[in-house]
Specification:
CATH architecture of the largest domain: 3-Layer(aba) Sandwich
Domain AB hydrolase-1: 50-343
Number of domains: 2
CATH topology of the largest domain: Rossmann fold
InterPro entries: AB_hydrolase_1, AB_hydrolase_fold, HAT_MetX-like
Radius of gyration: 20 Å
Number of strands: 14
Strand order of the largest sheet: 1-4-8-5-11-12-13-14
Helix content: 25-40%
Mean pLDDT: 96
Site (Important for acyl-CoA specificity): 322
Low-confidence stretches: none
Catalytic activity: L-homoserine + succinyl-CoA = O-succinyl-L-homoserine + CoA
CATH superfamily of the largest domain: Alpha/Beta hydrolase fold, catalytic domain
Largest sheet: 8 strands, mixed
CATH class of the largest domain: Alpha Beta
Keywords: Acyltransferase, Amino-acid biosynthesis, Cytoplasm, Methionine biosynthesis, Transferase
Distance between the termini: 31 Å
Length: 376
Amino acid sequence: MKKQGNSIGVVAPQRAHFDEPLTLRSGSVLPAYDLVYETYGALNAAKSNAILVCHALSGHHHVAGHYADDPANLGWWDNIIGPGRPLDTDKFFIVGVNNLGGCHGSTGPSTINPTTGKPWGADFPLVAVVDWVRAQSRLADSLGIDSWAAVIGGSLGGMQALRWTITFPERIRHALVIAAAPKLTAQNIAFNDVARQAILTDPEFHGGHYYEHGVFPRRGLRLARMLGHITYLSDDQMDQKFGRELRHGAFAFDYGVEFEVESYLRHQGDKFAGYFDANTYLLMTKALDYFDPAREGDGDLAQALAVARAKFLVIAFSTDWRFSPARSREIVSALLKNGQDVSYAEPRCNFGHDSFLMDDPHYHAVVRAYLDRVKI
């Protein structure tokens, strides 16, 4: 499929250091920290055209474009960002940031704890979505951005956009909440726990301090990713892509890789374990589990969202069973109950939860149409 508009081209990451301590929801305090981020487009004189892109569980700051020394390394949302694309860099200044606890340059478990001179490991405090939003607000301050034209994200990124409207209602004018949910179901928490157990029980985990042992819980992280990846895809997509195809045309009557879908999952697991940090995976899944802004409204989501001043676009995908459209409609219903401005779309896209990452023309047209109306 030919992409509309152009790629952003060569980009480079930047680093912001913060000496002001950050008190986390857990009560722990980070005395100082770094955030790695990238920007695309130009900030206008009024600094009113900035959009924050929040990443999902396995995402990072490299949202669009490619690096000069690695042309094949495209940003994870490159298909939607660039000149003439739905997130149009001729109009908007786009910011992507690697969240606290990440493993792509921002302060996290694999970075050095200044107190010990060793990697933080399991000593890195658990973070919540609200902690990420507060850290992002300080990054906005450092860039001179008083108010985001929009905050956008899919999955866990959509939850951050939702959190922004509650924690800093005066600093966000539009929220694009895509393939997200107001909180995890028991089933989703269960999936996350099984994934974590795969890592925690890996003999090479060493209580989270595997860095000091010169090893990595690769098997556990590989299994965690394989499990997660199954939930990101739709049943129809997996059937169309793999069916019951055998790699070698006949049963081998052993426990090796026989079906094409097995080969695919193992490849995805191995690839992920090659670049992602296991402690970060644990942190990110816990942040997902803890997210539930309705707790601040005595269990009433509408009450929690009543402070929001932003206009909303909520998008769900019919084949997404991990965060089903019914969960997005809960957000829409809460906003409508308050009389708040919300638009809802449910594009037909066959890629399950991963649909928010895809170059789907209907989905992209919805985002484009909404952002075209955003005044800067």
